[in-house]
Structure formats: C-alpha cells, structure tokens
C-alpha cells in the first residue's frame, strides 16, 4: 500500500532516549517515540509538558541534548529544519511565523518562488496558493496582505505553506487552536487524506475528543516525561485528561453562588463600532460573569475593543452611573476596566521581553522608587505572580515568548490584576490551553466575581460559557440577537441564535 510498508518491522521514524536541557532545566527526559507510515500519532500534555520542544527536535529546529533519531532504521542528525525537510519531515509550528507585509501567495512560496524564465511567476503562485488554501476548506484571496488576515486564516496559510513541501512525516503543533469547527473539520479531512497516502502524522491538540476522532495512537507527556502511549481505540478522552494532569479532572467548572440582584456597574446603550458592531445595548452587574457567544467574526471582539477605546465607537457607555467616553485604552484602564485580548501574542505580551517587564509594564507607577524603578519590588511581584497564578517556569529570567501558552495567559492575568480592576473583559480566555490550566483559569474567573468584580467573557467555546457564566448574550453579524439565562443556557439555543437557523437547518 505505502512505500514504507516494504519493511513493516522498521518504523518510518524512531526516537530513543531523547532529552533536552535549556540552561539547567531538563524539559525533555528520555523520550522514546515511533511514527509509523500511514498513522496519526497524537501527542498530548499540559502546557509546558514539552510537546513543542519535542516536535522542534524531530523537525531539526532544535538539537537534542541526548538521544538518537532514526529514519527507516538509519540514524540521522539534522543541522537545521531544511535538513529535516530534505529527509521529508515538515512542521506546522504552533506560533504563526509568516511575513506580515507579504501576500498570502508570497508567504506560501517564500524561499521557493515559482519562476517563469528569470521572472517570478506571480500568476502561477497565486493559483497554487488559492488552490492550496481551498483544499484546506478556506477561501482567501491569495493577493491579500497577511497582516489583514484573522488568526485562523493565517493558520490556514501556514498549513498550506508546509504541505507544499514534499513530506513523509507531517507534524502539526496545535493546528486547530484558533480554527472554527468548520475549518477544523476541513483540516481533519486533509489529515486523513495524507495519512491514506502513507504519510506519518504527529498531531498535537488539547481538544481531546478531536484526538479520539483523528488519531490512531496517542502518547502523553507530563513534565517532560513520556507517561503513557496507547492505541486510541483503547482510551477515552477522560482517561487522556487524567494521564495529562496526573489526577482526576472530574469537575472542570467551579461551583458558583447564584448572583443576586446587584447594582449595575456598566450600562452600554446603542454602541456601534463602524464596520463591526451595530446598536449594542446591555448591562453588567457587580459580581456578574456575563458571556458573549457567537460565531467567529460576529463582532464580539470589536465591540469590546470599541467599548474600551481601542477602536472608534459611537453610542453611550455609563460606568457606575456616570457617562464615560474612553478615547483610548489608558482612559478605560484608569477607570478600572481591563481588556485581555484574544491575541495574547500580538496585543497582550511582549514576547521578546522578560517576565518582569511584561508583568509590570502596565502598572509601572506602582514600582517607581525615588529615582528609578524599584527592582526588588518588581522581583517580589514576579515571585508573587508565579505563586498566585501557578505560572510554571523553570527559570525566572526567560522571555515571555519562552513560556508555554497556558503560562503566558496566566502571566497576562497576573499583569492585569496588578491594576486591581473592577471590570475585567477576557476574550477567549482558554484558547489553546490544556485542561488543567483551564480549570485553574475558570476558578480564577469565578474568584474575581466572588470578590465583587464584574467579568465579561467572550468565547467561541459554548461549554465554557455555559459552565462559568451567569448570563450569555449572543451576537450575530455585528448585533446582539438574544440573551440566554438559566435553563436556556444550552448549546442548542445558543447555536440557533448565533447562526439564525434552527439546528435541523444548520449545515
Ligand atoms: N528556548 C527556551 N529556553 C528556555 N526554556 C524553554 C525554551 N523553550 C521552551 N522552554 C521551556 O520548556 C518547557 C516545555 O515547553 P514546550 O515544549 O513549549 O511545552 P508545550 O508545547 O508542551 O506546551 C516549558 O517549561 C518552557 O518554558
Ligand atoms: Mg506547545
């Protein structure tokens, strides 16, 4: 059937005793792993477990500190990712690594442009790019500049780019974290197609039902160690979660005391964000957790950005009864309203700066000594943040970009809490975050409400909204189209509002 079946005793890829040390911290310990031709092998584990590091070693981006890798039984060492590509191993990185000022087609063909004589053949590249993106279920004009694309679209471009390289092993590092259900389905279909050709796939995802659906085998990493490896048919998502976290994760969502009738802290009337959201009116009460549901692109993020002064908006906002008009985000911060962006990497954190800088940037006033910043207090604040938010990092002097996704989110929460806000708006609080960290973040959000703060949660994950919110507003095409509370807070009613069709009609 496939080329590697010539000798089924020898796996397509095999790693033995792989270890990796950064400084003094060993983040991978003695990993043994095989990839067979024509299988999807899922790698799961909490944020920081070492999944991305392992994938980067297999794809030649990092050299292992110890251990051996073999392809078709033959020992290999890679001088870099291009070397690994020549052996047929390609990696779709977890981070978006595209050139923002180039077009979709230019990015897809960057470094391997198509030529017509001595000239770059833009037409053929555009056609190829459009076809590659369509094959992934996307519909993006190949002439679009990448900086104009949504995160999901960028992810599709990145996948298209990698799949154009001839490959025997494709590694996907959390490819679906920012994709819609429709885009995810399209990607899973593509993965089944490449598997059918005898390609070996390594697949990382926190969505355990998705892992159950697509993978033939699943390997679990915890704290840099391989703790289990199973045929997927033998194991349920709940078992996977337990192996990942090392304990039972029976209850993901915290218990909450029903919010009583309390004072209104925020009143929004007829707020419009031109081009994105129209005529939004709602109220937020003290101690309340208010959800915003809707499909990607429904205008939820832009509505929030308009409200806090990150985008121009029209309409009335009253904060504690007083009319406010936040011209920029500093004004809303000063009023005690913080907004945590869905785009942690682009807007929330400075990935090339260290943890202290990121933690204290928004609240530098707090750390001003007589003449200069008080380093001791900053360092104590970082220690406290690491403790309070359970930020898992081997060292304190690393860059924010070296933290895993869940720990980046916790650093961002810690940074915002230094401002002691009364209203916290969190956009996609757990995107790309594993189940153990999710549980902690939900508990943290519930605690904020218990303390009398008011929370708005924007999320595309309906179970999450239903699990933590008191009330959910649903947006569709830029408008608030309904509110669900109590028994009506179920996926069915939310889907009907979000799509405007009844479940039976929905495609
Ligand atoms: N370049 C680096 N320098 C120091 N530590 C790193 C570096 N890259 C990753 N780490 C650390 O290695 C551990 C594993 O990270 P990673 O492989 O990204 O985990 P995962 O992908 O499972 O979330 C984390 O503790 C992370 O902070
Ligand atoms: Mg990772």
What can you see in these coordinates?
By secondary structure, this protein is an alpha/beta fold. It has 17 helices and 22 strands. The chain has helices spanning 51-58, 81-86, 104-108, 122-135, 151-163, 181-196, 208-214, 237-245, 300-307, 329-334, 344-348, 355-360, 375-388, 405-417, 435-450, 462-468, 491-499; strands at 13-22, 25-35, 40-44, 66-71, 74-76, 89-92, 115-116, 119-120, 169-173, 200-204, 217-222, 225-231, 264-273, 277-285, 289-294, 314-319, 322-324, 337-340, 423-427, 454-458, 471-476, 479-485. A six-stranded mixed beta sheet has the order 6-9-10-3-11-12, sandwiched between helices. A six-stranded mixed beta sheet has the order 18-19-20-15-21-22, with helices on both faces. A four-stranded antiparallel beta sheet has the order 2-1-4-5, covered by helices on one side. It is globular. The two termini are 35 Å apart. Residues 1-5 and 503-507 have low confidence and may be disordered. The structure holds adenosine-5'-diphosphate and magnesium ion (MG). The site of adenosine-5'-diphosphate (ADP) has 16 residues, from helix 1.
């Amino acid at each position: 059937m496939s080329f590697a079946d010539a000798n089924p005793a020898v796996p397509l890829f095999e790693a033995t005793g792989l270890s990796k040390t950064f400084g003094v911290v060993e983040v991978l310990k003695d990993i043994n792993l095989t990839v067979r031709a024509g299988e999807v092998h899922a790698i799961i584990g909490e944020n920081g477990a070492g999944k991305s590091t392992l994938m980067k070693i297999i794809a030649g981006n990092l050299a292992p500190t110890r251990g051996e890798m073999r392809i078709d039984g033959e020992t290999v060492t890679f001088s870099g990712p291009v070397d690994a590509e020549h052996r047929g191993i390609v990696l779709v990185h977890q981070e978006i690594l595209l050139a923002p000022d180039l077009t979709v087609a230019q990015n897809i063909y960057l470094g391997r442009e198509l030529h017509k004589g001595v000239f770059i053949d833009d037409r053929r590249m555009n056609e190829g790019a459009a076809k590659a993106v369509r094959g992934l279920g996307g519909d993006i004009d190949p002439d679009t500049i990448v900086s104009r694309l949504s995160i999901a679209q960028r992810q599709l471009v990145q996948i298209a780019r990698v799949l154009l390289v001839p490959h025997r092993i494709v590694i996907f590092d959390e490819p679906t974290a920012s994709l819609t259900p429709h885009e995810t389905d399209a990607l899973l279909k593509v993965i089944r197609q490449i598997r059918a050709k005898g390609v070996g796939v390594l697949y990382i995802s926190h969505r355990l039902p998705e892992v159950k659906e697509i993978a033939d085998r699943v390997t679990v990493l915890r704290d840099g160690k391989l703790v289990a490896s199973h045929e997927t048919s033998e194991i349920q998502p709940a078992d996977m979660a337990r192996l990942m976290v090392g304990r039972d994760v029976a209850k993901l969502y915290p218990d909450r005391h029903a919010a009583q009738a309390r004072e209104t802290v925020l009143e929004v009337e007829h707020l419009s964000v031109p081009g994105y959201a129209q005529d939004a009116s709602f109220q937020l009460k003290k101690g309340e957790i208010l959800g915003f549901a809707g499909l990607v692109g429904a205008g939820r993020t832009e509505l929030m950005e308009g409200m806090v002064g990150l985008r121009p908006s029209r309409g009335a906002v009253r904060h504690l009864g007083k009319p406010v008009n936040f011209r920029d985000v500093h004004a809303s911060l000063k009023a005690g309203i913080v907004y945590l962006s869905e785009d942690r990497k682009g807007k929330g954190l400075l990935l090339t700066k260290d943890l202290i800088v990121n933690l204290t940037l928004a609240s530098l006033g707090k750390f001003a000594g007589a003449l200069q910043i008080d380093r001791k207090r900053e360092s104590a604040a970082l220690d406290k943040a690491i403790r309070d938010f359970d930020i898992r990092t081997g060292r304190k002097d690393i860059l924010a970009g070296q933290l895993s996704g869940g720990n980046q989110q916790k650093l961002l929460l810690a940074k915002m809490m230094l401002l002691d806000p009364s209203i916290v708006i969190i956009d996609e609080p757990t995107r790309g975050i594993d189940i153990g960290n999710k549980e902690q973040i939900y508990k943290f959000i519930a605690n904020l409400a218990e303390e009398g703060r008011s929370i708005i949660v924007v999320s595309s994950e309906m179970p999450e909204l239903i699990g933590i919110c008191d009330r959910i507003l649903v947006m569709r095409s830029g408008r608030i189209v309904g509110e669900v509370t109590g028994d009506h807070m179920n996926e069915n009613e939310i889907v009907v509002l979000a799509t405007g069709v009844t479940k039976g009609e929905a495609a």
